[in-house]
Amino acid sequence: MIILNMKITFLGTGTSQGIPVIGSKHPVCLSDNPKDIRLRTSALIQWNNKNIVIDCGPDFRAQMLNSGCHRVDAIFFTHEHNDHVSGLDDIRPFYFRQGNIPIYAGVRVIDALKNRFGYVFKTEGNIPGTPNVKINEINDNFMFHEDEIILLNAFHGKLPIYGFRIGNTAYFTDVKTIPESEFKKLNNLDLLVINALRKEEHYSHLNLNDALDLISKIQPKRAYLTHISHKLGFHDEVQKKLPGNVFLAYDGLEVECN
Questions:
Q1: Contact, 177 vs 213, CB < 8 A?
Q2: Whole-structure pTM over 0.85, yes or no?
Q3: Is the C or the N end of the chain the one with fewer CB within 10 Å?
Q4: pLDDT in tens, 224-237
């Protein structure tokens, strides 16, 4: 596969509550630094004239407006939790312009989406004004445009979830563990995106030390941390303490990659 002129835009880099958390008096939630304000985690990856969104959470509408994105060629879902799927209805403007929007997800996630957004999946008798999608089931034999996207398996606590490798860039979120068998898919990365929830241990998310250990093991040229909670600390203060090739992502950040 040949990946040309690839760019990742971090549409959101926060956890399920976002930052600031409603009603919180935590200092990070009161910060006036734009880098400390985080919508729910999502990314726009663009290459070869394709616009691919990873996860479609409750902030999807605002994220699309902020990014200036006018076309979505596909939406990939890492898993079915609310902060990663609940914006699906807001694909309507794209559907009205483009027709059915291709979505890619595992069968468990597709079933969850059908249960929650049944009207989006109807093939007959649609309610006027509702969107439709084209379902593409992800499995171990998954291929997208001649393997432009490679499936990565991981676990969010005990829940199996997906990451994705595009060219020499790999994107994960909500990871706690990665099976040893997957590390061979992560060789020679230029860029790794991985979650780092907070400094304290968490049962289903990597904390900062966990994420740094994984980065050290995978050895990408650069790594960006996402799915960050207010408990990690102020963006600028945390960034100063990170290794030279590790960066805190923030909403709106655009990174050129291969």
A1: no
A2: yes
A3: N
A4: 999 999 999 999 99
Q: What residues have CB less than 8 Å from 23, skipping those under 6 apart? A: none
Domain ranges for the chain, please list them.
6-257
CB-CB neighbours of 98 under 10 Å = 15
The helix (run of H) or strand (run of E) holding residue 211 is: helix 208-218
pLDDT digit string (tens) for 127-186? Answer: 788 999 999 999 877 777 766 899 999 999 999 999 999 999 999 999 999 999 999 999
Nearest to 173 by CA among 157, 189, 195, 151: 195
C-alpha dist (Å) from residue 34 to 9, 252, 255, 257: 16, 10, 18, 24
Return d(Cα 101, Cα 96) in angstroms, integer: 10
Buried b (16+ CB within 10 A) or exposed e, 217-243: ebebebbbbbbbbbbbbbbeebeeebe
Residue 28 near residue 233, CB atoms below 8 Å: yes
CATH label, 6-257, candidates 3.40.190.150, 3.60.15.10, 3.40.630.10, 3.30.420.40: 3.60.15.10
